[in-house]
Design a protein that fits this description.
Helices cover 78% and strands 1% of the residues. It is mostly helical. The radius of gyration is 19 Å and the shape is globular.
Length: 284
Amino acid sequence: MFDYLPIIAPAWIAGSLLALLSAPLGCLVLWRRMAFFSDALAHGTLLGVGLAILLNFPINIGILLVSLIVVAVLVFLDDKRLPSDALLSVVAVALLCLGLLILTQLPQQQANILGYLFGNLLEIAWADLPLLAVTVIFGIGFLKWIWQPQVAVTVIFGIGFLKWIWQPQVMLATHEPLAQIQGINPTLQRLFFMGLLAGFSTIALQAVGSLLISGMLVLPALIARLWANSPRTMVILAIILAQIAVTTGVWSSVIFDIQTGLAIVLMLAMGFFVSFLLNKLYFK
């Protein structure tokens, strides 16, 4: 089995790096009740791929641009008369249909559609890891920046960013009126968070694909929520669970010859249902 290690090592490392960002980000998604939004952004990555190939510019740039456009559109569509989850569902479906429509009209890309939908982590090479690592560190830094503002000036690069963003997001998720009294701008923080989700969707496409990005984002946090008794514990458990899912998913994809993204998300889904049943049986 270890004969495969040199081949899957880049994918394993890449998945582990993504898990470091997806776990705390997923916790914020749950606390702020934005799972539908993350799903809409994930489906938007497919449209970004299609437009990038059609217009002949880098795929990551196409995904990021479409993600930012989606954020702007969702802010514009915000209307108290319409349920936000319904609006997000409409946007998600429209983005998925548009993306598939463009990709199916490009003959040279039809063989790659499954990879865009479900990911192909094993195609990541050693040369791709430095850029991924820098992107994840920047993302963690930005997340920390909106978490606790007063520490941002004390730490350089990513860690300072990460520390500054966390506390306003937690306060907005739990006590929005109190957060506003303390001078936290909900609209600005929401845009920060949406932008971070857009960036995560961009780098997670190759790992788990457009259809499964939200699963990798939400499931570790959802499982951790069943066992944690504090936000800190929930984040730590989510990181551990995401790492376990990546490891078992990568090896399972090699052993059973299945899509890596499918294997990772299936491991997380199994973990959720087992955790849920155990909680129901033993912690009534």
